[in-house]
Please model this.
Amino acid sequence: MIYQIRCSYCGCYMGEKEAPANKFALMMIEHGLTVESHSICEQCKQHVLNDIMSYADKGGFYDDK
Ligand SMILES: [Zn+2]
Model:
């Protein structure tokens, strides 16, 4: 079956993929819902990476202050 791929962060549409159906997906379709799979778009990936890097730069990952 076809799954719609969306960015989990901003919700933008990223295309679709073919993958095996499962009980949950079939139930979603039965209820008229779109079956989605999640990923992260390039923009959000950069944003999240920048956040992590700036946190690390401030020594945020270390407890020994
Ligand atoms: Zn995004």
